[in-house]
Structure formats: C-alpha cells, structure tokens
TrEMBL record:
<dbReference type="InterPro" id="IPR020843">
    <property type="entry name" value="ER"/>
</dbReference>
<keyword id="KW-0479">Metal-binding</keyword>
<keyword id="KW-0521">NADP</keyword>
<dbReference type="InterPro" id="IPR013154">
    <property type="entry name" value="ADH-like_N"/>
</dbReference>
<keyword id="KW-0560">Oxidoreductase</keyword>
<keyword id="KW-0438">Lignin biosynthesis</keyword>
<dbReference type="InterPro" id="IPR013149">
    <property type="entry name" value="ADH-like_C"/>
</dbReference>
<dbReference type="Pfam" id="PF08240">
    <property type="entry name" value="ADH_N"/>
</dbReference>
<comment type="subunit">
    <text>Homodimer.</text>
</comment>
<protein>
    <recommendedName>
        <fullName>cinnamyl-alcohol dehydrogenase</fullName>
        <ecNumber>1.1.1.195</ecNumber>
    </recommendedName>
</protein>
<dbReference type="GO" id="GO:0045551">
    <property type="term" value="F:cinnamyl-alcohol dehydrogenase activity"/>
</dbReference>
<comment type="pathway">
    <text>Aromatic compound metabolism; phenylpropanoid biosynthesis.</text>
</comment>
<dbReference type="InterPro" id="IPR047109">
    <property type="entry name" value="CAD-like"/>
</dbReference>
<dbReference type="Pfam" id="PF00107">
    <property type="entry name" value="ADH_zinc_N"/>
</dbReference>
<dbReference type="GO" id="GO:0008270">
    <property type="term" value="F:zinc ion binding"/>
</dbReference>
<dbReference type="GO" id="GO:0009809">
    <property type="term" value="P:lignin biosynthetic process"/>
</dbReference>
<keyword id="KW-0862">Zinc</keyword>
Amino acid sequence: MEQGKAAVGWAARDSSGALSPYSFSRRAQEDADVTIKVLYCGICHTDLHIIKNDWSNAMYPVVPGHEIVGVVTDVGAGVKKFKAGDKVGVGYFVMSCRSCECCGKGYENYCSKMVTTCNSIDHDHDGAVTQGGFSDVIVVDEYYVLRVPAGLPLDSTAPLLCAGVTVYSPMVQHGLNSPGKHLGVVGLGGLGHVAVKFGKAFGMRVTVISTSPGKRQEALEHLGADEFLVSRDQEQMAAAAGTMDGIIDTVSAWHPITPLFSLMKPMGQIVFVGGPTKPLELPAYAIVPGGKGIAGTCVGGIRDCQAMLDFAGEHGITAEVEVINIDYVNTALERLEKNDVRYRFVIDVAGSLGSGAA
C-alpha cells in the first residue's frame, strides 16, 4: 500500500484540550482525491467541544479544524473539477455514502455514514481517525472539496465553510431568503453576524435579538441590521410581537426560547443552529395557537455549501475575523470559551505552522 503523506499539525492529547505540535501521516492520495496545502483554518465552537471531550466521543490525539481554505497542490488521475493552483475549501465533513436518500437529495450532512473532517473513522480508506485543518496538508475526495470564488479574501472566507453554510442553508430551505421578509437573528456571534449579512444580501428586513444592549451599535451601524431588540426588555419584545416571518437562533448556551415565538407571525419558523448542552424549554402554548414551527440544522450539504460560497462571492460576504498564528491557538480557545472574539478566530496555518512536531 502506498505510504501516506507526512503532515504536521497541532493536536489535543486529552480532555484538558491543550494543543501542541503533532506529526502524523495523511492517507495516500487516490484517483478521486485532491491534496490541499492548508492556508487558513477557522476555529469553531465545535472544535472546543471535541478537544475537551464534552460530547464523550474524542479519539485522542485530535487535530481539530473544519473551516479550511487552501490551495490544490496535487490531484489524482480521476479528478475532473480541480487542478493544481486552485483555491478551495473543505468544511465539516469529508465523506458520506452517496447512495442513501439524504445523499441523493443533497443532504450529505445528514447521511448516517458521514465522516467528519476531524475525530471520525474513515472506514472507506485507511480506517484511521480523521484529522482536521489545524495542519499543513489534507487529502480529500474531490466531491467534498468546494471552489472558493475569485476575489474573496481567503482568511475571512474560511469561517463560511461552517458558520456560513450553517445559517445560509436553513434560510434557503425555510424560505427565509425572500426580499421584504422579516428575519430575526438571535445572538450576534460567529454564526449570528454572518446570518445578518446573508439576510441583508437577500433583501430582507433583519432584526438582531440579543441579551447585550452594548451590541446595538455594532449590529446597526457596522453589520447593517435594521433593528436591534434586547430580549430581556419586555417592552421592546412586546412592541415587536407578531412581526417576524422567521428566526435563526444561533446561541450555543441555554436561554429562554418561549418569548421568541411571540415575535413571529402565524406559521412562522424558528431554526436552531446553536447547540446548547442543556435542554431548552418549550411549552405547547408557544407554538400551537399560531401554528408555528421549530427546526434544527447541522451545517449543510455540498450543494448548499457551494451555493453559499458563490452567493458570498457575488455579494462580497465574508466573516469578521481575528487572524492568529498557530502558537496563539490555546489562548484563542480560552478566549473563545469566554466569547471574547469578534467574531471568529482564523489561524494563518501556512504562515505560522513550523516543524518540530512530536
């Protein structure tokens, strides 16, 4: 069997979540594969959950990272979509069965055999644990590689591979992308700020809903939201009752959700894209009288992700990022845990990942 490609990354070895240099081997490139030099990789809250084993599924050592932007360095003999030098992205997953109903409908993200970009078993290849984008190189089947539109800055495009498609996909699926409709965005963090940008690009009226009055100026003046609503202010909430066509809730911590349903018109839809670890409380009276719906979304399929990138390219949409060197990553993760980032950390992998791994 052909030997895999040597790689260098930063990995967590235990539930402390502390990352340190790590040498490993990528799987050997096959005919359908693309080899990518990683240029930038965003840091997602999911990475924090994985490295700290919050979901009790960590397979250490773990190299996190699934918001990857890079350049193609080599392609297999059967690759048709990409060539060396192409700017590309890799998101939350790198494999699915491609034969089930979900895959057939373009929802590979819900395939029962989906292989995530890190901390998953790659049964179709070498059976090893997948390692993510906090590393210098990655080998991916071309089907799961996305084309980055020309003109988008690569560092601030990286978070779109997860945060971007996570909000874009449900907006399209649930009709929250029509000009003139009123969208509520709960939370103004890594996901929320991108949702505001997509909502405005769709031509919607966008209201940011937050517990933090101090974010009003940022939401209205910098991100272009139309209104700002403090969720703890009962008068503001009452004044906005029944005005929204739908809501994207991006908050990853427990929060009261019953008041949010009162903001929506009858038949309104709320979509949860955050992942609180404690159960949310929802009494029937919040949804039954107005026929209101509730849904969840986990990233998006390949089709939606490429459509999102193309839309972002047309409208110049990127994330607001703080670019860091790899040796700052542990501090960045500590800050992320405290929500001390505006709004997404992105690692300059190619510019800062040295050798000396172990």
